[in-house]
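2024-03-11 09:14:02 INFO worker-7 job=invfold-0412 stage=load source=structure_tokens
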């Protein structure tokens, strides 16, 4: 049997292995290792549209109000000022607004630190800023090594 007969089987096998790897990455640790791959693939125009269609269709099955809110917000565009945000929120119905705000709250609450630096930021107060309890006995940042009379004028 000639070698070129095996080419379709090899291509199908490679595609099957690729889809299996993507499925495993999507299930393992809630898709943590699949996100960078999707982020890189989203730079390609048709892939980005395909991913958006897939996510909207999954949202339509699980939460139709949120799906319609997301579609309306995508049509409105990315708001950059608070006025634009208010105008975009006025477009939504009360049920859509409620679903959108709940999803936005869950998105920030589901943050999982992936490395030591992110875990320390989370322990210190979330955004890298020290909490009040950690900050009570300390001075301003960067003043630890200065002497009290270091800024005297010379005459």
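2024-03-11 09:14:09 INFO worker-7 stage=emit residues=155
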């Amino acid at each position: 049997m000639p070698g070129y007969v095996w080419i379709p089987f090899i291509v199908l096998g490679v595609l099957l292995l690729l889809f299996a790897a993507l499925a495993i990455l999507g299930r393992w640790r809630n898709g943590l290792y699949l996100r960078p791959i999707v982020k890189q693939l989203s730079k390609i125009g048709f892939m980005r549209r395909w991913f958006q269609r897939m996510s909207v269709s999954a949202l339509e099955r699980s939460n139709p109000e949120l799906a319609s809110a997301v579609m309306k917000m995508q049509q409105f565009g990315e708001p950059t000022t608070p006025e634009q945000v208010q105008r975009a929120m006025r477009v939504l119905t009360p049920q859509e607004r409620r679903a959108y705000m709940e999803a936005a709250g869950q998105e920030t609450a589901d943050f999982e630190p992936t490395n030591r630096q992110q875990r320390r930021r989370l322990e210190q107060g979330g955004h890298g800023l020290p909490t009040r309890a950690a900050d009570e006995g300390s001075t301003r940042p960067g003043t630890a090594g200065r002497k009290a009379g270091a800024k005297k004028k010379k005459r």
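2024-03-11 09:14:09 INFO worker-7 stage=report msg="The chain has a mean pLDDT of 79."
2024-03-11 09:14:10 INFO worker-7 job finished
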